[in-house]
Amino acid sequence: MTNKIRVFASVLALTVSLSALSACSSGNNGGNGPGASASNDPGAAVDAKDTITALLPPVSANYQSNFDQMETDFNKLYPNLTLQIEPASWEDITQKLDTQVNAGSPPDIAFIGSDGISKYVEQGMLMDITAEATSDIIGDFDPVPLDYMKNGSGLYGFPAYMSIHALGGNKQFLEEAGIDWKSVQQNGWTYGEFREAIKMGVVSSGGATSRYGFVFATSGVTAKDYLNILIKNAGMPAAFDKDLKYAYTSQNYLGVLKAVRELIDDGSMPKELSSVDAGKRWNMFLTGQTMITGKGLATFENSAKTNNKKIEAADGAVEGSIPVDYVVLPVPTFAGADPVASAAVDGYVTFRGKKEPTEEHKANVAKAAYFLASGKIAATTNTELLVEQITDSGRAAAESLTVERDPDNAAASQRLQSIASPARPDIPAELGAEAIKLEDEVIIPKFQALLADEITPEEMFEALKKAAVEAFGEDGVVTE
């Protein structure tokens, strides 16, 4: 991408090392914070004081420890503006945000997944910053991740990163099982090939399994990840097809549900899969209890290397862990579908309250969201996460940062990024919100029951089809 001359070059000079500050959502939504101006005079907006609030989780290892510096640097860049950051955990950010949204006073900015945008658009609680996003700002972002922050004609924030959800393998175990992992990285694999491969990774003795071929976290905040990653590779990259018909009533969806049960019934995955959360999944991988794990994030390579160093130093390693060379692997494809990488585009989504925000406040929120999503903040965060930079300003700032990455893994990640599922801003907010409701109320609980062998794949599929028809009508769902 060609370098651009930017009026915001000062952003690139900012340093980003911050510390936790707990702050309630104060002068947001309507620009009614301390000293906020209600004037519509553009000249008055330059010096009018305003406070912008942000609810932010631990995006990367050192992200939350840098909050104080972030607030300070933003105030130096905009002396009339104050950035107030409220920290949240990954486990409680959705509850915190929804509580504030329901009270009509959300933060100005919240770090959430782009897949939640339609829900809040439908509730009328997001701030469209299309008019505030200048051509220089828009030009800084790669188009694909930026599109994820859109719904219809509106732009509702800026992306922080595009993270590919892949699988992760133990190189030693893969090679012992005779799996050509380099070929898989380069060419992918079908479900049939994957199924046979993970059988080879199982180690059992006397009816007890000491190592599984594959383990995926399916409990807690990861409850929907497994299924969502698989179905993208079964010809359903989004909940709606191009004709805006609900896609998960396709027979391919049933095929994926059957595959999930097969992998457990084969003994390649634990029968207790429904109780495996993200922490247990990673612990099982580091302690050699599984050959392949999911979902695999790029940063897991760093996490494995860090634990390896702790093992070598006999200081602080995960109890019972073994040295692991982490291998990035693609998700298998189903039913002859083209491979599609599951892309998580998270970022700084802009909110509003019940009152109409002033033009000055909207402009200030856009400045804060861009400040967080670009330059050294983006460079530092994405380098820690081992994900690709998605802004020109982030790439420029990252030139001075050291990244240690296995070249095979880097190439595999770049390949997956090239086939990432595209954004679907064409899906109307009301349809997207209804799909989220269907996921929360039907898919997740039924999937947990399927994992626990309490219902069959056919029973889950029929329940989903019935609910989908009730939600979208007979003509609003895919029929085969």
Structural descriptors:
20 helices; 9-stranded mixed β-sheet; 41% helix; 480 residues; disordered N terminus; D-Maltodextrin-Binding Protein, domain 2; 14% strand; two-stranded antiparallel sheet
Walk me through the topology:
Elements: H1 9-12, H2 42-45, E1 50-56, H3 67-77, E2 81-87, H4 93-102, E3 109-113, H5 117-122, H6 135-140, H7 143-147, E4 150-151, E5 154-155, E6 157-170, H8 171-176, H9 181-187, H10 191-200, E7 203-205, E8 208-216, H11 225-232, H12 251-265, H13 278-286, E9 290-296, H14 300-313, E10 326-329, E11 342-350, H15 359-373, H16 375-385, H17 392-398, H18 407-418, H19 429-451, H20 457-472
Parallel strand pairs: 1-2, 1-3, 8-9
Antiparallel strand pairs: 3-11, 4-5, 6-9, 6-10, 6-11, 7-8
Helix pairs in contact: 12-20, 16-17, 19-20
Kindly describe this structure.
41% of the residues lie in helices and 14% in strands. The protein contains 20 helices and eleven strands. Strand 4 and strand 5 form a beta hairpin. Helix 12 packs antiparallel against helix 20 and helix 16 packs across helix 17. The longest helix has 23 residues. The protein is globular.
Short description:
The protein has 480 residues and is of the alpha/beta class. The chain has helices at 9-12, 42-45, 67-77, 93-102, 117-122, 135-140, 143-147, 171-176, 181-187, 191-200, 225-232, 251-265, 278-286, 300-313, 359-373, 375-385, 392-398, 407-418, 429-451, 457-472; strands spanning 50-56, 81-87, 109-113, 150-151, 154-155, 157-170, 203-205, 208-216, 290-296, 326-329, 342-350.
